[in-house]
Amino acid sequence: MIILFFLFVPVITNGQAEEKQVNKLIINADLGKHKISRHIYGHFAEHLGRCIYGGIWVGTDSPIPNTRGIRNDVVQALRGLDIPNLRWPGGCFADTYHWKDGIGPCNNRPSIVNVHWGGVTEDNSFGTHEFMELCEQLNCEAYITGNLGSGTVQEMAEWVEYLTSDAESPMTKLRKENGREDPWQVKFWGIGNENWGCGGNMSPEYYTDLMRRYSTYCRNYSDNKLLKIWGGPYGTDYNWTEVLMKEQKSRGMMQGLSLHYYTVYKDWGNKGSATRFAEEEWFGTIKTTLKMEEIITGHSTIMDKYDPEKRIGLYIDEWGNWFDVEPGTEPGFLYQQNSLRDAIVAAINLNIFNQYCERVKMTNIAQTVNVLQAMILTRNEKMVLTPSYFVFKMYKVHQDAILLPSELKCEDYQFGEEKVPALNVSASVNKDGIIHISVVNVNPHKNLKLECEIRGAKVSSVSGEILTSKEINAFNDFDLKERVFPVKFNGAKLKGEKLIVDVPAKSIITLELN
Ligand code: AHR
């Protein structure tokens, strides 16, 4: 839990007393109990705009270098993030997806209309086999969202069987005919997506009944064990969580409850530009992001009531900034640029997820390539890594490490009449005993000094990386490659028992303590 308040120390300058704020962080290096699941660092790729088509899949005949149709440059970049899992095929797309359209010889696959995203033709050239190939290339777990909105129980049951069974059956025969002899391992299975909205506009009671039915037939085959994730609420819809959690109490059918929350500053009709914004939007976006903590706490409190042993994970399988699309691009493709502000938002969210890792077992930023808060943008054969990409790269040190409890006392960042805590942190220790601390300074004007006390560990050296830029809206573009990228950080010093960190304005730092 992060505790926030001011400390004022009187300082005498030219005979006059002046109040100087001191920011203090205590890290209890010997009190860590909970693992930060690597799945908190998960990703999401939907059949939406140019995420799959163009961003990941170019087809085997493309002049863009690819391995069995999947872009080599994108895979190589994503490998640098140690992606633990990838959610697919949606999103709302999953609620209309019929998986049998996406198997077998490509030229026999039917073309359909992607009704949710721009009404474009979906030729199904990227389907089950191609997705599993992508997961193999990325060395990550598959997280598949089944269609409970418009698909049948039989359809979902057969998809699980097709993917994971090694018995003799019509589904396994079909898989083998399509070129895959051995079953795959599929760890995560979503029973629907946003079923209160694009997934069928259901009430939580109706969804719960359906979900029990669909869940029953999604079986464990061979040695594959599915973790079933129920379609959860959006934001502060606590009633949805209450109804689902009450239902699962004695049944043990649910291993995860999904939660979606996007940072949308102002309103859905006027989300603002991803790169052309002033300090008001910077502040508003940060304030809206910080609400994630309250939302997690709200849902966790309900979950604690029905699942005090914390067997069921909270899976925040869609999160991130949602801005207006880039001018001149198809509105249904959700293509937006990505600036330092996105990096700050990613870092704040990841700090919060780390802090609540006892309940938060997975999260998936939306989305991997060319959609919403993307890691990577592509234009034909070109590729650019976004500031958000670099945050995931800096933060991967926390994957599967033990969360270190911390207490932060810091000053506020004030904008007009409103304020938020200026600093935001999380810390962990990995299996080799190395401590990592991630610190975000959201104040775009003020460098802050942070005094850290590391209790319960002997630290003899500190090094680090920093991500910042001159302007709050700096971004990476195809012709201006990598203006916002991490560099070595020299602003942390050990002074006796203390670690003193000079945290520059609008920056993200990850420190390594040995
Ligand atoms: O990520 C874009 C969309 O946002 C997803 O398809 C849907 O689940 C959510 O509303």
Model description:
The chain has 9 helices and 29 strands. Strand 13, helix 7 and strand 14 form a beta-alpha-beta unit. The strands form 8 sheets. It has an 8-stranded parallel β-barrel, surrounded by 4 helices. The N terminus is likely disordered. It has 514 residues and is α/β, with parallel strands linked by helices. Helix 3 crosses helix 4, helix 6 packs parallel to helix 7 and helix 7 runs parallel beside helix 8. The chain binds alpha-L-arabinofuranose. The site of alpha-L-arabinofuranose (AHR) has 10 residues, from loops.
Gyration radius from CA atoms, angstroms: 23 Å
Strand element count:
29
The termini sit apart by 24 Å
The best one-word shape is globular
Task: Name the helicity range.
Answer: 10-25%
Strands of the largest sheet, in order across it? 4-7-10-11-12-13-14-15
Bound molecules: alpha-L-arabinofuranose
The structural class is alpha/beta
Percent of sequence in beta strands:
25-35%
Q: What is the residue-averaged pLDDT?
A: 95
* Parts with pLDDT < 50 across at least 5 consecutive residues: 1-19
Helix count, per DSSP?
9
| Sheet with most strands | 8 strands, parallel, barrel
